[in-house]
Automatic annotation (TrEMBL):
Database matches in Gene3D superfamilies: NAD(P)-binding Rossmann-like Domain
Membrane spanning residue stretches: none
Catalysis: reaction(s): a long-chain fatty acyl-CoA + 2 NADPH + 2 H(+) = a long-chain primary fatty alcohol + 2 NADP(+) + CoA
InterPro entries from the UniProt entry: FAR, FAR_NAD-bd, NAD(P)-bd_dom_sf
Thioester reductase (TE) domain mapped to chain residues: 21-139
Organism, as annotated: Triticum turgidum subsp. durum
SUPFAM superfamilies recorded: NAD(P)-binding Rossmann-fold domains
Protein's name according to its UniProt entry: Fatty acyl-CoA reductase
Signal peptide: none
GO-annotated biological processes: long-chain fatty-acyl-CoA metabolic process; suberin biosynthetic process
Job of this protein: Catalyzes the reduction of fatty acyl-CoA to fatty alcohols.
Family affiliation: Belongs to the fatty acyl-CoA reductase family.
Length: 151
């Protein structure tokens, strides 16, 4: 009973919120994206930080590595022909890189998208298993120095 209440309160908290998710192309990231969209379809927007040269490439990467995976089968069945529109409405690719300061975004990009972010979920990790330990820890554990200002 308590676990159910906790799940409902988390799902309720995500209603009408915009969430920045790092690591969405990884195993846990795509599970998280699917779960949020399935249990809280009233989430406002999921900004997925994607390493890509441009927005179109990021969209393709999301389609092939995230929403095109088997884990999204239930959502596809639930939404039927409207699945692509639902995904287009809810998921916004954000081209950047967790290993760069401020995700590699310039100040105007940071200011623009930070106005819309309510929650940040860090699921990113280095995929280089031979990475220096300090680099691994920095991208996996510590909070970003990204400064959001709503001026």
């Amino acid at each position: 009973m308590i676990g159910e209440m906790d799940a409902h309160s988390v799902a309720g908290y995500f209603r009408n919120k915009s969430i920045l998710i790092t690591g969405s192309t990884g195993f846990l990231g795509k599970v998280l994206v699917e779960k949020i969209l399935r249990v809280q379809p009233d989430v406002k927007k999921l900004f997925l930080l994607i390493r890509a040269p441009d927005v179109e490439s990021a969209k393709i990467r999301i389609q092939t590595e995230v929403t095109g995976r088997e884990i999204f089968r239930v959502l596809k069945e639930n939404h039927g022909a409207g699945f692509d529109n639902f995904i287009e409405e809810k998921i916004c690719p954000l081209v950047g890189n967790i290993m760069k300061e401020n995700f590699g975004l310039d100040n105007s990009q940071l200011k623009e998208f930070s106005k819309d972010i309510d929650i940040i979920i860090n699921g990113a990790a280095t995929t280089n298993f031979f990475e220096r330990y300090d680099v691994f820890i920095a991208c996996r554990v510590f909070t970003y120095s990204l400064q959001f200002s709503n001026e």
